[in-house]
Amino acid sequence: MGKWNWQHGDWPNFTWDKQQIQARLPSVYHKQGYVAGLVNSLSGSRALTTKALTENIVASFAIEGEFLDANVVSDEIERGVRLSASREMIEGVGLLEENAAALISNVFDKQSEDLTPHRLGAWQRCMFERTYSPAQIGQPATWRTEDVNVVSGGSDDRRIHFEAPSPSRVAIEMETFLNWFASSREAREIDPISRAALAHLWFVTVHPFEDGNGRSARAVADLAMFQTDENAVLYPMAPCILADRENYYRVLERAQSSGLDITEWMIWFFKTLENALDGAITRLSWSVEANSLVTMQPENRLLTQQVRILVLMHDDAEQNVISASQYAAINSVSKATATRHLTDLVDKGHLCVCEGRGRSTKYRLSGK
After folding, report:
1. Would you state the pLDDT for residue 367?
2. Which residues neighbour 260 within 8 Å (Cβ) at sequence distance 6 or greater?
3. DSSP 47-74
4. What's the pLDDT tens digit per position in 223-265?
5. Phi/psi of residue 357, each to 5°?
6. Helices 335-347 & 304-315 angle (0-180, nearest 10)
7. Most exposed residue of 16, 106, 123, 169, measured as fewest CB within 10 angstroms of its CB?
8. Is the pLDDT assigned to residue 60 strictly greater than 50?
9. In this predicted structure, what is the pLDDT of residue 87?
10. What is the pTM of this model?
11. CB count, 10 Å around CB of 152?
């Protein structure tokens, strides 16, 4: 029996402690339901969706050490870049950020929910090719032809963290995986969350590509979640994985080198998903509150520009303070108008003065 999970005779018959996992499901389902209720309370969630998609793909690339310009990605998502065989739809796609926007938009595309070699191939090409033609988009994935070892250290302290299956096995391994992914969607034997967790681990273990396997595995897990909950777009896991990156790789390594029992991986996945759900609940709750600010009684009602600033300050850790000049630039108003709006927000208890006086006055959220 070999060292790696795929070398075991029962591969890919993964096992895990069903009782432990079943005990975690009610909490996850409750939070998913909470998210759904908040979404229903909003008049629209397009801006939140764009932000979540952007955070998702930017974090997924950052996990692999590739850093995207979030503003460009967001603009392209908002513009509606999609993977398509239409030349008009991909005109101008050239920057990696634009390709990344196309990738994540396609993962959460209701019009294309099946996972196929063609779709995987398009995702993988988005990660590395700065430009591509409609003909290339329509091509199926090209599986790797070289052995892959995940290693660290130099020649004196080289350590093998994982050795992928031989390239001669990849085609049949991926056929087995894709057949399972399709059939398990309606299966009663596995819950939707465990299915996503298993899909992530199984895909990255097969390691079908020369590169981009981690990003593809996270996209596959996202798709699995989205197939059973359309609100999954609003609770991306990649930012939480990035925040726990070292542990992510550590748990993956243990799952791939300790037989077919993947209980530890499952527990880690569930905990990370709950962290993502908690973040989404916080953001959505604030958005519901922000929406109510423009419909209050006249004496407490806020202007759209004021609400825009409160949402920005609440949702962006880097925009934790604001000046009248910044307010004026964001809302396209005069500095005098900006000062009046900000003073009104202070009077109503939403902001407080945190530093400076006169023209150098800066404001932050009350209670922050």
Report:
1. 67
2. 5, 8, 10, 11, 12, 13, 14, 15
3. HHHHHHHHHHHHHHHHHTT----HHHHH
4. 999 999 999 999 999 999 999 999 999 999 999 998 999 999 9
5. -145, 160
6. 70
7. 169
8. yes
9. 40
10. 0.84
11. 10
